[in-house]
Amino acid sequence: VTRGAGSGLAGGANALDGCIVVSLESMNDILAIDPEAQTARVQAGVVNKVLDTAARAHGLFYAPDPGSRDFSTIGGNIATNAGGMCCAKYGVTRDHLLQVRVVTGEGDVVTFGRGTTKDVVGLDLMCLVAGSEGTLGVIVEATLRLLPIRPQLVTVAASFPTTAAACRSVTAFRRLGVATAMELMDHTTVRAVNGLARMGLDESGALILAQFDGPDGADLATRYRDFAAAAGGEAFVTDDSGEGASMMEARRLAYPALESLGSTLLDDVCVPVPAIPELVAAIEEIAATAGLLIGTFGHAGDGNLHPTVVFDAADDDARARAHQAFKLIVERALALGGTMTGEHGVGSLKAPLIDTQLGPVEQTLMRRVKAAFDPEGILNPGRGF
Ligand SMILES: Cc1cc2nc3c(=O)[nH]c(=O)nc-3n(C[C@H](O)[C@H](O)[C@H](O)COP(=O)(O)OP(=O)(O)OC[C@H]3O[C@@H](n4cnc5c(N)ncnc54)[C@H](O)[C@@H]3O)c2cc1C
Question: What does pTM read for this prediction?
Fold first, then answer.
């Protein structure tokens, strides 16, 4: 079982009975940053934030920004194809991957990808490794794309009377432009964050924290503010980076705040963006029927939400209802054309649900691919698919 920082939320890096855990933590050298090529070559254990900070010294930045960027590793980010807040505009980890060096299950050390902008020779094994959750090989090194530091971010905190209205604003705004981030916190989550950190957030409804960059960033922010007002919401706009960062901090506290209320089951469903209002309506209905607290937050801008079921683990009945609600949320997301996991991975958490999304032919093909990389089945056995 390969392990980066162990921050994964699907249990994919947890030890299994009889296994050896391989920690990549100490392989943490930044091998090269090439400002001309706008690339970085790093060992797998480099922490995302450390790479971003090093890139900034060259006028560049590393875009994929999972909420765990202060501690999660590039190897773990590639293995889970991690997303983050700015993925709505900049894409996920795979979109910034140019080359990846892995050790296969047979001990071969091989580099996939050419590091060029274009390459169509053979099958794309590099992209196959992204999101493979340690089942195909141990990632030891990667070459990543860096981008020129973007102009100052403009941040908008917009409150809406209902979660549905907040979600409709996200889907409708897409006709006007692309936000860098559009993060949702429903009423339950806002209250939990206020309870944990006394942030004084408006508790009357749901909150969207949006960020805009680029030459039209300020204009888009103003338009989103007006848009929020028209939908019955209120918005606060700032181009002060410190103020913007503290506003986004509220979103980073969403999961810890819900976790402080009880045991949790954290979901990671992703639907086509226009289906978000229907998904949140379904989640609210599931919560009401089950008599459970479900806080929904996440990357609304790319359709990836983290409904979090809060329950009392000591109460058998509550635990059973929580697991049933978790499963129902996955089923509703699939029915809306979505996926059971957008960025956290299958790991151990979602392995029992895999048949609800993947058919027998897809699973057989995936197992054959796995067998080609790892004939003895020694890499993260029983995980994923
Ligand atoms: C507070 C918090 C916020 C988070 N926010 C986000 C978010 O916004 N977006 C997001 O996508 N995730 C998020 N996560 C989840 C997690 O941080 C990511 O999945 C991250 O990519 C995992 O990196 P890691 O180094 O901790 O990997 P680990 O947890 O150690 O491993 C995760 C998986 O990758 C495999 N793996 C790790 N390293 C390697 C390697 N070198 N080679 C092969 N396989 C490997 C493991 O076997 C396991 O299956 C968050 C987690 C927390 C705790």
Answer: 0.95
